[in-house]
Fold this protein.
Amino acid sequence: MRTHTVLLLAALGIPAAVTADSTQTQPMPRATVTTDTAMVSAANPHAVQAGVDVLAVGGTAADAAVAVQMMLNLVEPQSSGIGGGAFILYWDATEAKLSTFDGREKAPASATPAYFQDADGEPLKWWDAVVGGRSVGVPGTLKLLEHVHGQFGNQEWSDLLEPAISKAREGFKVSPRLSTSIESAKERKLDMFESTRDYFFKDDGTALAAGSYLTNDNFARTLRSIAINGSAPFYTGQIAKDIVAAVQTETNPGEMTLDDLANYTVVEREPVCVPYRAYDVCGMGPPTSGGLTMGQILTLLSNHDLPSIGPTAEAWHLYIEAAKLAYADRGMYMADSDFVSMPEGLLDKTYLSERASLIDPATSMGKAEAGSPPSEDALNFAADLQPEREGTSHFSIVDQFGNIISMTTTIETGFGSRVMTNGFLLNNELTDFSFKDMKDGKPVANRVEGGKRPRSSMSPTMVFKDGKPMLAIGSPGGSRIINYVTQKVIAILDWEMDLQAAIDMPHVVNRNGKTDLEEGTTALDLQSELEALGHEINVRGLNSGLHAIAIQDGKIHGAADSRREGIAAGF
Ligand code: GLU
């Protein structure tokens, strides 16, 4: 591939201010970036550069996604990579067709519902379960990229890996966010395993400083092998053997076998779309709860005139109540639909209009109960709220042909299981399962089962008007993702906010409990009014990483979350 470096914004290498004691990047003022032809919005400038370079030589969004993901794996290793899983929404402009692809990690075939329980059947403590091979699900991201590239790419696969291979060899500067993430993950055993410790820490045991150079020859070798042979070495060759050996940690060993890796498949699934005012909002179906939960919240709000109410306490009250109802159904019913007969009627109009009548504009309902959506099977589940932590990355890409990708990609919590092999980290996605398999004599839908995919909250999203795509968006943030993405969609569609302003709009989050308001922001101005309506408020940092592209008036607009280190750029 010709290297054609497109001049990124002056923002390339943007100095991100990071607080000393957390991984929260302080909001930096940004502006929406507008171009004519193509755009990438992602969590790191090197990754954006790699993607823009591919687009500039005529590559598609699918081609650029390969380059972006491999670079993210290198420069933002704590969040995503080939050791993890991902979901892709792909808009194929030629066919005018939206497809959704599931590259979610899977439990080993031998896993049972007691997988995360001790000898007495008690659930393990969360961090005890995370650290080590036991939490590692069979990774899907590499096969997913190979699949989507095979279907929609026009560039040579091997060329797309080249930027990450060179960068891994020549080295990159550790970003402020990576450095503070290493520092804070040290307390949570990031230095427990030798290969991980050697890579992320200095000889004296302190975290690599921001600005220090890091090379990754092991990762360069891994990518070289994948560049030549595709995903085979990873799923059936030497890397597969190394992964299986690596999950055999002394404490907390995993059960993944070579067969589990060899049998991994990417699944194309039906998009989950709901009409919302003049738009169609489309997302990913199970095993993520993202598309369905967003679809419920938007449908529950569709009879309220949010455009005229505006972003006021009145609107946020309605939003919070709708979120509670949707999260209650999510906890009860949503899981891997290949294993659990989920009710078909979670987006049923009549059902949701009955649920919407539970929203009282004058007072909070407190905690919402799950409803009884129409279903062919008898519904007999127990509620579960397994928390998910905040690793993960989202990127959006539009190419010169009008193809669009919206991809959320993860190794689950920051640095995943802490187990590293061949220069990349392995995920801890299996801790997204419920550790309890039964409650009150009823099975939990999201319990562990052999070959099952853990329930996710990832919400890669696209919005359409008159059948034409107008927005691609998504975010990391564990189970808060659904709130982050849904409310930005509302801000863009209903309040007609500028893209960057919408992304930077302070967060108001509810997962059917207390309402989180984003600390240090104007969201706190809502506190007394929301309390008067009966909401319990919790003020905290809310570290989204929204990366969005809008297509409007024949132009392409990109924005990257000021809370992180990403940028949007194109030509
Ligand atoms: N593991 C989570 C999920 O799949 C994502 C974690 C995160 O966003 O940090 O929903």
Notes: The first strand starts at residue 33 and ends at 35. Residues 388-392, 410, 412, 429, 432, 456-458, 476-478, 481 surround glutamic acid (CB under 6 Å).
